[in-house]
Amino acid sequence: xxxxxxxxxxxxxxxxxxxxxxxxxxxxxxxxxxxxxxxxxxxxxxxxxxxxxxxxxxxxxxxxxxxxxxxxxxxxxxxxxxxxxxxxxxxxxxxxxxxxxxxxxxxxxxxxxxxxxxxxxxxxxxxxxxxxxxxxxxxxxxxxxxxxxxxxxxxxxxxxxxxxxxxxxxxxxxxxxxxxxxxxxxxxxxxxxxxxxxxxxxxxxxxxxxxxxxxxxxxxx
Length: 221
Hints:
LysE family translocator; 0% strand; transmembrane helix; LeuE-type; mainly alpha; membrane
């Protein structure tokens, strides 16, 4: 397949996915306030957003964006605005009477609508972040053999593997957060303030993204 050091790639990917960041924060916040199902849906939304960057990078769109300061700037500001919007909504949200009442609700239409919103918010949070695309461009090629005949296919396979492993890590974050919310009274009582803290962090992530360097000097996600 033209892929080098596959086990090292898997290990590095798992460590990167275990590192807390905007994605983990988004998943944990929803799992704490609404239960495991909401956290898992958030994880799927985040993962779906990554597929956009994997597919784009595999066909060269991300490489074009990395070379174009204008393309990077447009997507950067769109992603930053969305992160700030999500953060403001968290700051202004009303306190839920129970962390898992959303999951235990007997109103299926309301529950379905809420889960859809969680999914698409997670999707756009990732899909509109140009640094995720630049991460894939910088990280994945290191594990593709120089003489590989089908580099785009190798890139796509590595991206799919990274996303698959990352999904289970994110689901693990959701389950651990939901378990804590269901069993630790102090966590349940502090959820209202946790969401506000999360909202402030999301605004911070958005501002950081807006002030990030051009593609030639960007580092990290």
